[in-house]
């Protein structure tokens, strides 16, 4: 991955947080909704500090796709090949 952000699995494998290493705070979360079989994500960023505004979304195409959507537009965001 890159130097600024890192993914951490939390509590259960169905919850992941994107941690900003500069502030040591979570700037996004990705969770799996077992009922609807959809990965939902929310990004708590600012355009000034992170390069992209706060936004939320969802995907039925898996965790990798959800993480890619979260990173889209972030300063120092990872390339798609670096997402696991």
Task: Summarize the entry for a quick read.
It contains two helices and five strands; from the N terminus they run ββββαβα. It has helices at 47-50, 63-71; strands at 5-10, 12-20, 25-33, 38-43, 55-59. A five-stranded antiparallel beta sheet has the order 1-2-3-4-5, with helices on one face.
Name the features:
84 residues, alpha+beta, five-stranded antiparallel sheet, 5 strands, globular
Question: Mind explaining what this structure looks like?
Answer:
- The protein is α+β, with helices and mostly antiparallel strands.
- The chain is built from two helices and five strands, in the order ββββαβα.
- The protein has helices at 47-50, 63-71, and strands at residues 5-10, 12-20, 25-33, 38-43, 55-59.
- The chain has a five-stranded antiparallel β-sheet, covered by helices on one side.
- A hairpin with a 4-residue loop joins strand 2 (12-20) and strand 3.
N- to C-terminal distance: 9 Å
Helix content: 10-25%
Strand content: 35-45%
What does the largest sheet look like? 5 strands, antiparallel
Tally of strands = 5
In spatial order, strands of the major sheet run 1-2-3-4-5
Low-confidence stretches: none
Q: What is the CA-based Rg, rounded? A: 12 Å
Briefly note the structural class of the backbone: alpha+beta
Provide mean pLDDT, rounded: 88
By DSSP (H or I, 4+ residues per run), the number of helices equals 2
The ordered H/E elements are EEEEHEH
Q: What shape does the CA trace take?
A: globular
């Amino acid at each position: 991955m890159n130097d600024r952000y890192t993914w951490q699995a939390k509590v259960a494998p169905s919850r992941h947080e994107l941690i900003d290493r500069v502030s040591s705070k979570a700037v996004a979360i990705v969770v799996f909704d077992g009922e609807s079989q959809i990965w939902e994500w929310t990004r708590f960023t600012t355009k000034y500090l992170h390069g992209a505004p706060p936004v939320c979304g969802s995907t039925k195409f898996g965790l990798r796709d959800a993480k890619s959507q979260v990173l889209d537009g972030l300063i120092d965001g990872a390339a798609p090949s670096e997402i696991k």
